[in-house]
Amino acid sequence: MKLFRPDTIKEAVELLSIHPKAEIVAGGQIVVNQIRQGLYFPEALLDTTSLLELQSVTESDTHIWIGAGVTHSRIASDPIIDRCLPALKQAAEQIGDVQIRNRATMGGSLAYADTIKGDYWGLLYALKAVIHIRSSNGSRLVPIDEWIKGLHQTALNKGELIEAVELPKCVNSEYRKIQLAYPETIGMTRVLGEFEAFVAVSGLMDRPFFMTDALDGMDDFSLQLKGHTFDYVCRPVSTQIEYAWHRIRIEYRRMVEGE
Fold first, then answer.
1. How far apart are CA 235 and CA 182, in angstroms?
2. pTM surpassing 0.70?
3. Could you read off the pLDDT of 128-182 as tens digits, one per residue?
4. H runs (alpha helix) in 43-180
5. Is 84 in contact with 171 (CB distance < 8 Å)?
6. CA nearest to 108, candidates 118, 122, 99, 116
7. Is the separation of the CB atoms in 112 and 152 below 8 Å?
8. Are the CB atoms for 78 and 57 separated by under 8 Å?
9. Residue 65 · residue 59 · CB < 8 Å
10. Measured at the alpha carbon of residue 147, what is the angle toward residues 144 and 151, in degrees to the nearest 5?
11. Degrees (nearest 5) of the Cα angle 248, 254, 258?
């Protein structure tokens, strides 16, 4: 297995153009563990931990950019994120344990694409995040609605790497995590904008859905969203769906009422 350690993004994408099947690693919490367990055998690894360009958090008047190499611990402690997007900070604080948070990155979460268990997805969908992609052919932007192609499947092509994720600032935002029977959890993200407020729920379906007063009044366990019916049949959480739905409705009312 070959190992590449580029010093710049330019060098990294040039290597990817030559070795398109190389697996990108930063924190290594997913890929390295799969290799150790004998579950995955990539032809080459491209280590991005030395790419300082991927480790920045920047802001404009209206948006923030979080580099793909920014760790969850950094997200939980960064002053820009704390001031501009508190729900993201709160979500980062509840990911795994301190060892995982110190290694795992935003780019890894985006690339792994587990929208059922990931803590960030409700906020990413609620705020219509945009993912910045780089390759030897240049840059492109992917809206979050077009990013997920399936469980662990994304719009990232061979020879590309994630550079950053862009989010609008939302000072009035909040994240809460509901613990069900271990290890199942549900994430609830409340976003209060200038013209609307809503709660995004992640952890039950293949992507987050938006909770409303109308859904709160439902007693059955299916939702009619955008003309499609989604049944709660995702992962083991479906075995405790009545309890999960009960907890969601309680937490939704608390969030709306500011408790």
1. 13
2. yes
3. 999 999 999 999 999 999 999 887 889 999 999 999 999 999 999 999 999 887 7
4. 72-77, 79-84, 86-93, 98-103, 106-112, 121-126
5. yes
6. 118
7. yes
8. yes
9. yes
10. 120
11. 145
